[in-house]
Design brief:
Elements: H1 2-9, H2 23-51, H3 77-91, H4 97-123, H5 131-154, H6 176-179, H7 186-211, H8 217-237, H9 239-244, H10 253-274, H11 283-300, H12 307-310, H13 312-331, H14 341-347, H15 352-372
Helix pairs in contact: 2-3, 2-10, 3-4, 3-10, 3-11, 4-5, 4-10, 4-11, 5-7, 7-11, 7-13, 8-10, 8-11, 8-15, 10-11
């Protein structure tokens, strides 16, 4: 909105307003706005959650040290979502469809998380939507994003190819058979596209959700991941940098920088209250929204593979759960003392603050490595 108002309408009357044309300025302002909005609204939201008795229910088989956290206000992810949406609407060029697709990903997955949190609160136990219903709703959200992406593809503002780390010439395209105008291959091509999209988006949202088990752990990692995505989207949207790094130029990537900056700022602001000992938890409405938003940005930037490194700790946490379940069902034995992985380290005696700090360090190393691969191509 500010881009349209100050640059396109008022710039002719006051030349300093030219600064609003630069995505770097608007990204910085969006980040600052999101952080300040999150910090400013935090006390009010925490008070309202306490007034409505919206407290966290601890799972019975969880670590004993977590039972003292029962009753801590949850659903703080509402604050995160508002702190991302408002600055994005204020500082981005709203004519760019990529911005709306990113917001759609954030809101749709956040809505699934809201239903899950509401069910837990209504039932007064740590069991929300059934796995089948939750997965079905997440798949539906991913299908919505897929339809929007195909609409962008039809307009020529989105490509279904993707970048591959370490190989600048290999750019696989899931819709290549459809582009060959062979009607017989259309079902297979579009099925592959949607299947891959669901894997990325549903996987990313649930990976963040599974990591959200210690005070500040998931939101601190989101600061790192969203910050890396901010840098990546800026490089992809800048003609000179994209050419130098031999990245596929992504239309609208510069505006995605503003969305990513808002995610970074909102996460920083929420960390103010979620740091150990947490005053509020984000709940599924926050973790699923952040994971979905992160996944959609990776798809829009055609960096789905690089997301595995940028969100490396999220991936490791999700894999620990998968390995634990598979091992127990096939061999009757557990690999870890408890899954996700952060609970395993709790069980072997690590302090919560030490686990959080060390996971943040690993997340930062993986994010920096991901950005390094842009040149190692």
């Amino acid at each position: 909105m500010f881009y349209w108002l100050f640059f396109e309408k008022l710039f002719r009357y006051y030349s300093p307003f030219r600064v609003f044309q630069y995505s770097t300025f608007r990204t910085g302002m969006a980040t600052l706005t999101a952080m300040l909005l999150s910090i400013a609204l935090g006390p009010w939201l925490i008070a309202r959650l306490c007034a409505f008795q919206i407290g966290q229910h601890i799972r019975e088989d969880g670590p004993q040290s977590h039972h003292k956290k029962a009753g801590t206000p949850t659903m703080g992810g509402l604050l995160i979502c508002v702190s991302i949406i408002v600055p994005t609407l204020l500082w981005s060029d709203l004519r760019d469809p990529a911005v709306w697709v990113a917001l759609a990903g954030l809101v749709s997955f956040g809505a699934v998380g809201f239903l899950d949190d509401y069910t837990k609160i209504r039932n007064k136990r740590n069991l929300g939507l059934t796995v089948r219903w939750k997965l079905a709703l997440e798949v539906l959200a991913a299908l919505l994003i897929g339809v929007l992406l195909l609409a962008m593809n039809a307009r020529g503002v989105y490509s279904t190819s993707m970048n591959v780390p370490f190989d600048k010439n290999f750019k696989p395209d899931l819709l290549i058979s459809a582009w060959l105008h062979n009607p017989w291959t259309y079902p297979l091509a579009f099925s592959a596209f949607f299947a891959f999209l669901m894997l990325v988006l549903v996987g990313a949202s649930n990976a963040v959700n599974l990591t959200d088990g210690l005070d500040g752990l998931a939101i601190g990692l989101m600061v790192i991941a969203a910050g890396a995505m901010t840098a990546l989207s800026y490089l992809s949207g800048h003609a000179d940098f994209a050419r130098y790094l031999e990245l596929s130029r992504t239309p609208g990537a510069s505006e995605l920088t503003i969305f990513c900056g808002a995610m970074t700022g909102a996460s920083l602001g929420f960390l103010w209250y979620n740091a150990h000992p947490a005053e509020v938890f984000m709940g599924d409405v926050g973790s699923l929204a952040l994971g979905g938003g992160l996944g959609v940005v990776a798809v829009l930037l055609k960096q789905e593979i690089l997301l595995l490194f940028i969100g490396g700790v999220f991936v490791i946490e999700a894999m620990s759960v998968i390995l634990q379940v598979v091992s127990f069902k096939t061999r009757g034995k557990r690999i870890f003392k408890m899954a996700p992985l952060h609970h395993h380290f709790e069980q072997i005696g690590w302090q919560e603050s030490k686990i959080i700090a060390r996971f943040w360090i690993v997340g930062l190393i993986l994010a920096l490595f991901a950005l390094t691969t842009l040149k190692l191509r």
